[in-house]
Amino acid sequence: RRHVLEASQQLTEIINSCLESEPSAESLEPAGNTDPAAEEESALHCLWVDKFTPQCYLELLSDDYTNRCLLKWLKLWDTVVFGKENAVKKAKPSTAARPPFSHPKEHPNKWKTKVQLTEEILEAELDQHKRPKHKVALLCGPPGLGKTTLAHVIARHAGYNAVEMNASDDRSPEVFKTRIEAATQMKSVLGANEKPNCLIIDEIDGAPAASINVLLNIIHRKDVEGEAAGGTGRRRRREGGLLLRPIICICNDQ
User: Fold this and answer.
1) 163 belongs to a structural domain
2) Strand-by-strand arrangement of the 197-202 sheet
3) Pairing of strands 247-251, 161-166
4) How would you write the chain as a 3-class SS string?
5) Higher-pLDDT residue of 114, 23
6) What values do phi and psi take at 161, rounded to 5?
7) Domain containing 71: what range?
8) Does 79 map to a domain?
9) Record keywords: Metal-binding included (predicted)?
10) CB under 8 Å to 8, separation ≥6 — which residues?
11) If I label 213, which of 47, 51, 94, 125 is the partner at 20 to 30 A Cα–Cα?
């Protein structure tokens, strides 16, 4: 064990010396009021998975098709969350102009990539409130694949404040419902940089059936309520209104 610790310490010092010798963008930025000794101390005790975790979309090493599909789905919320009408208006003519040309010949669809076809399907499935048809994205895979990292990086990349909750910890359906509504309806107050929330529910496969039903009721009940335009305002205020924030669920066993 002592030999392993010594070898690990030597390897850490070699990596740190190599990183310090390379000019990086971080070294060009002003240090501000940070304490170098405190940063060095925290870096020595920081796990490698935390020290070298991806900070932006281009640093992701996971499957590119999954990354692009999740980012495309999250950007479809821009009209509702950020009020960006131009992006949707540009997408609609492009999708509407292609089908007439593809009716006589199916060659255009033959040369489209899998990502392009998926993006067109996602854009075509918007509801009457200009939200994606599927309100929840589900990331599945074995532990250590990078699902949580992917969700956080893409949420920040799309301009959201990532709010994470663990479905296995909140066993009570009432607490589960309260936390979902708080994350999807309340704004995050971060000084002047106020961003909308993107809810990330980890270990959704460990949640009880009652909590899953709560999540489904929040989605389907409000969809039906939005379609029924004749509903009373009192009932709408009591049930909380439409779901206007994206939700990303993560599980190991689909």
Assistant:
1) yes
2) 136-140, 247-251, 197-202, 161-166
3) unpaired
4) CHHHHHHHHHHHHHHHHHHHHCCCHHHHCCCCCCCHHHHHHHHHCCCHHHHCCCCCHHHCCCCHHHHHHHHHHHHCCHHHHCCCHHHHHHHHHHHHHHHHHHCCCCHHHHCCCHHHHHHHHHHHCECCCCCECCCEEEEECCCCCCHHHHHHHHHHHCCCEEEEEECCCCCCHHHHHHHHHHHHHCCCCCCCCCCCEEEEEECHHHCCHHHHHHHHHHHHHHHHHHHCCCCCHHHHHHHCCCCCCCEEEEECCC
5) 114
6) -100, 110
7) 53-83+114-223+241-253
8) yes
9) no
10) none
11) 125
What CATH number should be reported for the domain holding residue 118?
3.40.50.300
> Which amino acid would we find at residue 250?
I
pTM of the predicted model over 0.85: no
Under the banding of pLDDT at 50, 70 and 90, the label for residue 25 is very low
Question: Does any domain span residue 18?
Answer: no
pLDDT per residue as tens digits for the range 154-199: 999 998 999 999 888 867 888 888 888 888 876 655 554 578 889 9
**Can you tell me the distance from the alpha carbon of 135 to that of 246, in angstroms, rounded to the nearest whole number?**
6
Locate tokens 């070298």: which residue?
Answer: 52
| Contact indicator for 67, 154 with CB cutoff of 8 Å | yes
**Considering its fold, how many domains does the chain have in total?**
1
Residue 191: CB atoms within 10 A of its CB come to 5
